[in-house]
Design brief:
- By secondary structure, the protein is α/β, with parallel strands linked by helices.
- It has one domain: TIM Barrel, CATH 3.20.20.70.
- Helix content is 29%, strand content 16%.
- The strands form three sheets. The chain has an eight-stranded parallel beta barrel with strand order 3-4-5-8-9-10-11-12, surrounded by six helices.
- The longest helix is centred in the middle third of the chain and has 20 residues.
Length: 336
Amino acid sequence: MYMNTKLETSILLNQYHIKNRLVMAPMCMYQSDDTGIVKPFHEAHYYMHALGGIGLVMVEATAIDPNGRISLNDLGIWSDDHIKGLGVLSSRIKEAGSISCIQINHAGRKAVGHDILGPSSIQLEGKEHVPKEMTLEDISHTIKNFQNAAMRADKAGFDMVEIHAAHGYLVSQFMSPLSNERNDAYGLKHQFLNDVIQAVKEVWPVEKAISVRISGTEYHHEGFDIDDVIEILKACDLDRVDIIHVSSGGNIRPNVTSFEEGYQLPLARKIKQQLNMKTIGGGLLKDHIIGEHALIHEDCDMVFYGRLLLRDPFYFLRHIDSLEFPTPYKRGKLTP
């Protein structure tokens, strides 16, 4: 079944005319090893999804520090040794007609391994270790690592870099009263995020795009909510940030047992309205219908899909007529 849809319309982010409003969410694949090097799996995975017609393909959370990995199988961007493999990913994504983005991340107190760091020495529920409270030197070093990661992302040819400030990882930890009890300048919930943004801006080409992914709420009465997040973002210098990618949760077990399809869209809508910025929204979207409605009702400007694309990388080729089937696969295209 083919349809005309707002999802198929183009959008301008900085200099990039993205062919449609579809975003492949950055989803951790855990398919590297302790080197963090790109493997054949990653090359096939991202190329395949770009062939599926997605306008913006985001590479998974990529570690800026070996001690900041979510798992020991994370992709890495902490070394120049990673540039070559990441360059293959960005070139394959672009060759297939998509815009390439990489998400850079430090897991903070959610990291594995040794020397676990956090804004404060507050243990995460379910983790055995108690993180070390970061010194100002630790903070400066980590901000520099974000900056170095952005430089490597540029050398690898990515069109966009996304700062991961969601899901209870390090930047998000600084934003939250659940994990940040500092009494210095970094006790201000926006300060670390703002400093990371400024460090990335210093080295990221002005013609390339920047995204920030945030959690819009922690689903906990002692954590931040959407109004807190909006105030944090207002306190940051966002002049070079092209879009806010809105997710939720991750820093602590939520006081919610189930989520509805599109449950994060109201968060994206509120940020879009109050900050007058483009947003990416979504959340457990099972097909194109709610995503289409979100764009019509201006909840967001682009729509991210995750699990749907893992189930069916070519889903949108079958539902949006304007998307061009890759030439080798055209014989498999169904006619209405």
